[in-house]
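agent: user wants the structure for TPR repeat-containing protein from Sulfuriferula plumbiphila. delegating to structure tool.
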Amino acid sequence: MTTPIILSFEKMLAAGKDNALLRFSLGNEYLKAGDPANAAHHLKQAVVQDPKYSAAWKLLGRALVESGHPAAALAAYRDGIAVAEAKGDKQAAKEMTVFAHRIEKQLSATDEG
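agent: tool returned. relaying tokens verbatim.
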């Protein structure tokens, strides 16, 4: 589903205003619209453009989980935890650690099953 705000952000992107904040915003809006695959695409670009953007790492992990890629989500959370800890962003690191542990449990249960 495309919303008016997604269309607005896509127009900005098409006009060459590509930056990490715009990609993060697009990813967030695609997640809200129920399109985690497109969200993950834009969030990956956000962390490429700004590897220290811990909020983008956290949202990328969520988008990857919701699009059915738990192993990739776990990797994103681990990278995001390292970034957040380096920046002193304790809350983001704590949240991503919880999410990563949930995925680890799911993946180990799948391996055992």
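agent: one observation worth passing along. The mean pLDDT is 96.
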